[in-house]
UniProtKB/TrEMBL annotation:
Organism lineage: Bacteria, Bacillati, Bacillota, Bacilli, Bacillales
EC number of this enzyme: 3.2.1.21
Family label: Belongs to the glycosyl hydrolase 1 family.
Alphabetical list of SUPFAM superfamilies matching this protein: (Trans)glycosidases
GO process annotations (BP): cellulose catabolic process
Protein name per UniProt: Beta-glucosidase
InterPro entries cross-referenced by the UniProt entry: GH (IPR017853), GH_1_N_CS (IPR033132), Glyco_hydro_1 (IPR001360), Glyco_hydro_1_AS (IPR018120), Glyco_hydro_1_beta-glucosidase (IPR017736)
MF annotations from Gene Ontology: beta-glucosidase activity
Annotated organism of origin: Paenibacillus sedimenti
Keyword Hydrolase: yes
Catalytic activity: Hydrolysis of terminal, non-reducing beta-D-glucosyl residues with release of beta-D-glucose
Entry binding sites for substrate: Q20, H121, N165, Y296, W399, E406, W407
Keywords: Carbohydrate metabolism, Cellulose degradation, Glycosidase, Hydrolase, Polysaccharide degradation
Amino acid sequence: MAQIRFPEDFHWGAATAAYQIEGAWKDDGRGASIWDTFSHTPGKVKNGDNGDVACDSYNRYKEDIGLMKDLGITMYRFSIAWPRIFPDGTGELNLKGLEYYSNLVDELLAAGIEPVCTLYHWDLPQTLQDCGGWENRDTIDAFVAYSEIIFREFAGRIKYWITLNEPWCISFLSNYVGIHAPGNRDLQLAVTISHHLLIAHGRTVKRFRELGIEGQIGFAPNVTWLEPYSNRKEDVDACRRGVAYFLEWFMDPVLLGTYPQFMLDWFAAKGVNLEIQDGDMQDMRYSIDFIGINYYTGNVGRYKQDEGLFDYEDIDTGYAKTDFDWFICPDGFYNVLCYITQRYGNIPLLITENGACYNDEVEEGCVNDTRRIQYLKQHLIQLNRCLESGVNLIGYLTWSLLDNFEWAEGYGKRFGLIHVDFQTLTRTRKNSFYWYKEVICKSGFDL
Ligand SMILES: CCOCCOc1ccc(-c2cn(C[C@@H]3NC[C@@H](O)[C@H]3O)nn2)cc1
């Protein structure tokens, strides 16, 4: 029987984010975030769900870390809620907020688990949004100042840092598509925000280096892979635009120092232009130690005139789908990681999110989520292919440790290895928890 084995020093972990799991939305001085505002606005989130309680991990983090220890992970990715640190975004520091994360980090370290800290996972302080949010360049400086406080507080304890989670979601999904907070629908605004986010990322990396913080820093774009339906140039170009929307638009400035010209031209043809000020592109270029990669889905696509933003349409090739209605495309994982390596060189890659939405429920104390096991197995095989192909992969953090608040979908989309009953907050290990535990123990699996 064929064996899939990973390097002994390969990091195995799981990921979460503050607004999705913590709850305690008004406890210990926490200020309002744009997601509190958005989720409390009727019609924005399915079933009227919000993050007021979520998984109550703010109060149950010791229980959650006990589950992580049982799982055997060596890395745990979490995010810090900016509004817990600066309730008004800037100004007065909330020491109780810092204390919570200090206790969390100490508990992780005591459990032998490496903390991976995401500084921004979408929960912008509402007071900053009231002043324009990421459209306002002042927010860039506010983010750097917030990040510096965290760097100084956790220097030596947190060794892996992520500035931004999924800048595509922060800019385009939230300000052009409009289904995430704050819910704008303006392409120029989204492009401007994407630019400001990359400046904020770069200046934060610069501050990290200036402070001489021990550890590694990167960011975590979400990427997809779109295979052209044919080798006709129009199909190839349409797929290239669709991939670049998530990938090159954010990675090229950080790793190559320029935006992809074909995307600048495409946006310009739609009357959307970037206002690049002196120093902006240099700020983005402060070198990072790794790239976090979030991958869920890919597809086959082709050119279709005037379809969507990029004259692109998906093809329904009959690939199976998750309960999020996303195509399952494991080959895309291999293809996109090889593409990233080919384009940017052998910079270390940390899979910061990969997982599947399946809404299996507890039956007689068990959750038989065989489809999630299948998804994880298929995608880990592709990661092993990448390693065999020389891709510099350092670890895999599955999304997610816990079922949690899946943004505009509320609690109806379950990604966790652990089932959460959102009425009782009872945690139940799913069968995928036990499967992943064995994978970690063996650093691989048998086919
Ligand atoms: C072009 C039109 O598109 C319409 C829907 O578009 C999307 C795209 C992407 C997502 C999406 C959701 N997730 C999972 C999260 N990653 C971060 C973590 O917080 C998880 O909860 N990743 N991507 C949702 C909707």
